Amino acid sequence: MVNFYGEKGILLETTCPHTPQQNGVVERKHRHLLETARALRFEANLPKVFWGECVLTAAYIINRLPSKVIRNKTPYEIIFQQRPDYEHMKVFGCLAYFRSNETKGDKFEAKGRPGVFLGYPQGTKGYKIFDIENKKIIVSRDVRFHENQFPFYKENDDCEDDDPLKADDGMYNGPIHYDTEQDKWGNNSGQSTNDQGPSEPNALNQDRDEESVGPESDGPHVDPGTINDNQQAHCESQGITTEPKITILTREKRNKSQPKRFDDYHVQLPPLVDHAQAPQSQASSTVHPLSNFVSYKNFSYTHKAFLAAINSNVEPKHFHQAVKNDRWKEAMRKEIQALEKNGTWTLEDLPEGKHAIDSKWVYKVKYKPNGEVERYKARLVAKGFTQMEGVDYHDTFAPVDKLVTVRTLLAVAVKRNWEIHQLDVNIAFLHGDLNEEIYMKIPQGFAKEGDTRVCLLRKSLYGLKQASRNWYQKFTNALVDLGFKQSRADYSLFIHKEDESFVAALIYVDDVVVVGNDPIKIQATKDDLDKKFSIKDLGNLKYFLGIEVTRTSEGLVLNQRKYILDILEDCGLQGCKPSPFPIEQNLKLDRADKEPKVDAGRYRRIVGRLLYLQATRPDITYSVNVLSQFVADPRQPHLDAAHRVLRYLKGTPGQGVFFHVREDVHSRPTVTRTGSDVPTPEGHELGICSFLVVHQYPGKPRSNQLSRVPLLKQNIGPWRLPETLWVRWLLKELDVDMAKPTPLFCDNQTARHIANNPVFHERTKHVEMDCFFCPVESQEIEPLSIASTMQIVDLLTQGLGTEQLRFLLGKLGTRNLHAPT
Prior knowledge:
Elements: H1 2-8, H2 24-44, H3 51-62, H4 75-80, E1 95-99, E2 112-119, E3 127-131, E4 136-140, E5 143-146, E6 177-178, H5 208-211, H6 229-237, H7 301-312, H8 319-322, H9 326-341, E7 345-348, E8 356-357, E9 359-367, E10 373-382, H10 403-415, E11 419-425, E12 439-440, E13 454-457, H11 467-481, E14 485-486, E15 493-498, E16 501-508, E17 511-516, H12 519-532, E18 535-540, E19 543-544, E20 547-551, E21 555-559, H13 561-571, H14 600-613, H15 621-627, H16 636-651, E22 655-660, E23 670-677, E24 684-690, E25 694-698, H17 708-716, H18 721-733, E26 742-746, H19 749-756, E27 781-785, H20 794-797, H21 802-812, E28 814-816
Parallel strand pairs: 4-6, 8-12, 23-26, 26-27
Antiparallel strand pairs: 1-2, 1-5, 2-3, 3-4, 7-13, 9-10, 11-17, 11-18, 12-13, 14-15, 15-16, 16-17, 19-20, 20-21, 21-22, 22-28, 23-24, 24-25
Helix pairs in contact: 2-3, 17-19
GO molecular function: nucleic acid binding
Protein name: Integrase catalytic domain-containing protein
Domain Integrase catalytic: 1-83
């Protein structure tokens, strides 16, 4: 070996005996491998003779795990320039049934034999399985796994003397026997089934979980590889194939406590029914389980069923995950059939000089009003981001409804006891006319081998840049033909008024909310739209744009409970300790150049999702606006502040905006805050809060040298009034009497007096002219005084303590229907 190193120019240095620190890098990796291998062996209770398989599997797993040393990439990704696939990975040491080729000629013999999963062979796409009966290792592709069962698990067994190969120790050193059928990873090779054995016509094959017995069970104990010959002979006489019954004994339970630093990462999902009545048979290791903060006891049984349905169904994220489920495979087939029936494309050869865009599948579970699953929807979406501007598309803009309009419309409907319905347009974008020549690759999962043709799109498809605009124009023309007029305040709102009849339709792409006081006209609108398009009537509004709508005799509540729980799950903070407030008082966040950087993509995802959450959670508005200032270069203090917001949401996931049925719509005041000093680089934060709409607008950057009174004057003018006047305009179109001026509460007397008497003097000459726009004389607003402690808009402009935060949220009218009692 020394000569070999010399020939290759390698300098050989040896370490002193028992001095591992001289080769620290290698020794640390050895420790990493051995600790992982020991964990695998102890978990499966394997004998020591399998130590080599444990080490090989440990290396296989480590090579596919991200490491901070290589910037959170995996060694596999560094070498092969692609992310590793985890679909085929199974629990090491678990029970595995593999196809046996020794039963050819006898159709009534078992097709599979029990074994123990021992890892992944190198250079072969299969699994290493230890054959319990023949005591040899084979490699097979056709394997069914029972990942919660371990054949070598015995009570009080330390794996020291239990050697399954004592009958023939030399066999383990022999060659590995490979299955003759070696192929790609198929659908069967990666499946893990717990409800059936490998022999399909066997009536005795029940769930292996039911065969497992604990230490106190009276059932007989059967060692791995032992078969009851009498039972087998009896089954053979009956013409039924049987398999060795393997009894699994669990290890004696011990009380374990996790390190304190892991408390935030233990998870216990809230029960889908009233947790107060649900049996709490198992103790949870989660210090702060979600069930302490989410309750369902205040809801009817039908609404509980609806909430349980939207919680329990998991929507696939990608095609490879969906193709394993027959429901989603059928949904994709139906989508393709609908597209072909509608004449969406024709298959043609790709012309020279043209490029074909790609597509992807998006999966969504649709629910009935009672919570039952209506259908599993698979939608084919074109990857429009690969289109070329000026060639594949031109104009793309299409308006969608503002969340302000949604809240305002629902508030008016609740006050006047109007009906609120929801419609869904099937394959909406396919109704749009497509004028450009666009080619698309055949959808994933439906391309035939060797077929090089592509789809020439004849109609718009989801994902195309111009698809939403084409659909919007088509649907707008249809509503106008039915007698609806387009709102000038929000172009996605359409209103039909005739005598005492009033019906309004609010569209968001293919989701339509219809409200009104005329059930006959509402039903007629549904029927007319169904004739022009394929309309699905979803009944009363329950779930819209990720917002849960709960209507009671007292009013209506909008909350985003499921959306919050999804954020917590994605961030791994389901078990975190809740915070009583979203942001610390007087917290000063700056660029923090000296602080360590964090994953910018992760930070932006959190902030982006929190921005949408403001639709029903005005209490996090200020916090989110502060966090938004650092999305370009986030540091650790910024991520910690974002996590505090998530911990605050953990404590009140069911809180939302409440619209009371007895409150008068036109008299609900607008509240404004003037001149709030906030610790941001821009100097001042401006806010507006309406009891119908909740918004926060950052003010123009101003020098702190400006005198306070002119700054207050500037705040009350151009930034507050347009929003207030726009809300009044929208309410007028919704047939609300706006004869009275809107009260504008201000906690600064000087600013209120300047608004009532807009004159120039020495202290206001340096303020811009547009700041003096104040429609007081036109009786559209009425500035009123309010104490600073009662100023609700403080929620939007500064961090508050726990007591003040709760007090102002109560005045604003929020309500938590999921609060445990």
